[in-house]
């Protein structure tokens, strides 16, 4: 006569099997590979992205991100258009996307205030935007097709004033009448370091320029086909900025200097401090909506201002230039101290 199996035997077997299965290593979660292009070389102005990479914030969001530096000989906008980048810092070109019916769109703005400035020597009568009319100004090619058009229309500048900007301070330091473009978080520090003199600084936002900066752009195809991936990238980038500004910036700073060995550590520190003091990243709408914030009203005001001075034609459909779908969610605000 066969004896019936004790009921506890089956339970013991199931418990043992479950324990063994739990002990087995799980397959690694597949990470989405992301190519992200900057519009210049590694520096504090991109600290939030490097912080997200260095501290594993991108990885925590399932992203294997490669950050590609920009530079004077690199056109990352063309690489985005060619599909070789997934995301790019596209500057103020989003309205041009809409005007030309290009399938790309702005999805977040890390900077509420543009860091761009014009720099002049003190005591030379070049202490206002109005005073620069007719005088030689060194600017780069991107600037010539960007915010220069706004200044030229507002203050009566002409292209005959333009001189090549070589991204080198030597011509400026050698000529007291020189005027050039720069970043408030960079060139003033280097000029003081080399000369001990505080240069005249004319911040672009003080001219009435309302454009966002450090704008993340991507393809409308990625937004349509992989909105969850776009959201993860935006969220992780925002958290990277909160961590960089309000936490320990060391991981990002070390990675920036490693990536760009020509970048002095003290300049990186100055850049971060300047962005905090001037509210470059966290001011205005970002104080209530979170870093990366954009609004319809701000985009419309910028467009109206630029159209009024002839930079953009009237009638452009701004809904094709940007989307608020991925921002204004107060992501990461709990990280702020």
Spatially, the strands of the biggest sheet line up as 2-1-3-10-4
Helix-strand pattern, N to C?
Answer: HEHHEHEHEEEHHEHEHEEHHHHHH
As for the number of domains, it is 2
Portion in strands: 5-15%
What does this structure look like?
The protein has a 5-stranded mixed sheet with strand order 2-1-3-10-4. α2 (47-54) crosses α12 (250-259). Residues 1-9 have low confidence and may be disordered. The chain has 15 helices and 10 strands. It is of the alpha/beta class and 337 residues long. It has helices at residues 7-23, 47-54, 57-60, 76-81, 94-99, 141-144, 147-155, 170-174, 187-195, 220-225, 227-246, 250-259, 265-277, 286-289, 296-308; strands at 32-37, 63-68, 87-89, 104-111, 116-120, 137-139, 162-164, 179-183, 200-203, 213-219. The protein is globular and about 60 Å long. The chain folds into 2 domains: 32-113 and 210-335, D-Maltodextrin-Binding Protein, domain 2 (3-Layer(aba) Sandwich), CATH 3.40.190; 116-207, Periplasmic binding protein-like II (D-Maltodextrin-Binding Protein, domain 2), CATH 3.40.190.
């Amino acid at each position: 006569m066969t004896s019936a199996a004790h009921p506890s035997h089956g339970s013991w077997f199931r418990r043992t099997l479950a324990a063994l299965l739990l002990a087995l290593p799980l397959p690694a979660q597949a990470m989405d590979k992301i190519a992200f292009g900057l519009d210049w070389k590694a520096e504090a102005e991109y600290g939030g992205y490097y912080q997200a990479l260095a501290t594993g914030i991108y990885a925590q969001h399932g992203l294997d991100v490669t950050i590609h530096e920009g530079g004077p000989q690199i056109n990352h906008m063309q690489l985005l258009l060619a599909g070789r980048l997934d995301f790019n810092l596209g500057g103020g070109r989003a309205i041009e996307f809409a005007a030309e019916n290009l399938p790309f769109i702005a999805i977040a703005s890390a900077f509420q205030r543009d860091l761009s400035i014009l720099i002049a020597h003190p005591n030379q009568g070049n202490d206002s935007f109005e005073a620069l009319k007719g005088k030689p100004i060194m600017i780069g090619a991107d600037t010539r097709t960007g915010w220069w058009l706004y200044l030229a229309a507002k203050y009566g500048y002409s292209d005959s004033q333009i001189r090549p900007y070589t991204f080198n301070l030597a011509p400026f330091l050698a000529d007291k009448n020189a005027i050039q473009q720069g970043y408030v978080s960079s060139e003033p520090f280097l000029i003081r370091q080399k000369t001990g003199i505080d240069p005249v600084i004319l911040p672009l936002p003080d001219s009435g320029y309302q454009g966002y900066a450090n704008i993340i752009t991507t393809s409308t195809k990625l937004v349509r086909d992989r909105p969850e991936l776009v959201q993860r990238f935006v969220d992780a980038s925002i958290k990277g900025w909160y961590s960089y500004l309000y936490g320990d910036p060391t991981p990002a700073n070390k990675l920036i200097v490693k990536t760009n060995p020509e970048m002095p550590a003290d300049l990186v520190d100055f850049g971060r401090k300047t962005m905090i003091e001037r509210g470059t990243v966290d001011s205005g709408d970002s104080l209530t909506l979170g870093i990366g914030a954009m609004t319809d009203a701000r985009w419309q005001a910028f467009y109206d201002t630029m159209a009024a001075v002839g930079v953009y034609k009237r009638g452009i459909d701004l809904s094709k230039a940007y989307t608020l779908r991925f921002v204004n969610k107060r992501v990461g605000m709990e990280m702020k101290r």
